[in-house]
Design brief:
6-stranded mixed sheet, 28% helix, alpha/beta, globular, 279 residues, Hypothetical Protein, Haloacid Dehalogenase-like Hydrolase, Chain: A, domain 2, Rossmann fold, 14 strands
Length: 279
């Protein structure tokens, strides 16, 4: 039976932004065997390397469920309502936070925050090596003096010397929630502000509906707090060692991290790499 596999990016597929060649080969192998593989990440599409998003996966669930695309067809592209977006930008600016606004086409920040954003994300989201496939992601950062009219699906607080991300979300209002950032190596104060009701499982459910896939045939593999709903939704949940307890509680089994090629282990244990699907 064909499985539909959803894989988190940071800490699951990639180790500090770098995808091991063994993971790329393993995904190619199980797709050749007839299984579907989708990236399921908190990152916006604009911060997924082009080589990966264009050829490695059958589809993308980005922005933690706020954006879904299959074969170039966009199924979901949820943005902050204009009033909530304006209030979010005003409050993050008022409290002197370093923040970005994420959208599928780009990420946006104030000019005086650009250098700090690039520094914070270097070696975690993108590489400073021009020969690396993730180097191109630095060009996704766009600056503007006025972000009040920006269209975005999620706000990321990179640094805050004042209120915590949770407190900022409360100030913005009941339309939003907050969660610790999922990017490996980011400071403990960094976090994401997203629309309430948006999570990875919502994006997965839309994919399942579109493809006609029963939940029992869905596999989800993740490592962080924003993967809890994803792994709980799946028929088979696989979790990276060292994950939060809230996520481990939903695991059918545990795998090593990406530095030890955990996806290879997961696919072998699930029998996805052993033989083609027979229809």
């Amino acid at each position: 039976m064909t499985k539909t596999v959803f894989i988190d990016f940071d800490g699951t597929l990639a180790d500090h932004g770098q995808v091991p060649a063994a993971h790329i080969e393993a995904i190619q192998e199980i797709r050749a065997n007839g299984h579907r593989v989708l990236l399921c990440t908190g990152r916006p599409k604009s911060l997924v390397p082009k080589l990966l998003r264009d050829s490695l996966f059958d589809g993308l669930v980005c922005a933690a469920g706020g954006y879904v695309e299959i074969n170039g067809h966009v199924l979901i592209d949820t943005r902050f309502p204009a009033d909530v977006a304006s209030r979010t930008v005003a409050l993050l600016t008022e409290h002197h936070t370093t923040f970005i606004l994420e959208a599928p086409e780009a990420v946006y920040c104030l000019p005086d925050a650009a250098d700090r954003v690039r520094e914070a994300f270097s070696g975690k989201v993108w590489s400073t090596d021009p020969d690396d496939e993730s180097y191109e992601l630095m060009s996704a950062v766009h600056t503007a003096d006025d972000l009040s009219g920006c269209s975005f699906g999620k706000a990321v607080v990179v640094e805050s010397s004042g209120p915590t991300v949770g407190e900022l979300a409360e100030l913005i209002g009941p339309a939003v929630s907050a969660i610790q950032i999922s990017v490996q190596g980011m400071s403990g104060g960094a976090g994401e502000i997203y629309l309430r009701g948006i999570d990875k499982s919502a994006g997965m459910a839309r994919v399942a509906e579109y493809l006609g896939t029963p939940r029992s045939e869905i596999v989800a593999i993740g490592d962080g707090y924003n993967d809890v709903e994803m792994v709980a939704y799946a028929g088979i949940g696989v979790v990276v060692e060292g994950a939060p307890k809230a996520l481990l509680d939903h695991a059918q089994f545990i795998i090593p991290g990406p530095a030890e090629h955990g996806l290879v282990d997961a696919f072998d244990r699930l029998g996805l790499s052993s033989a083609p699907v027979v229809h």
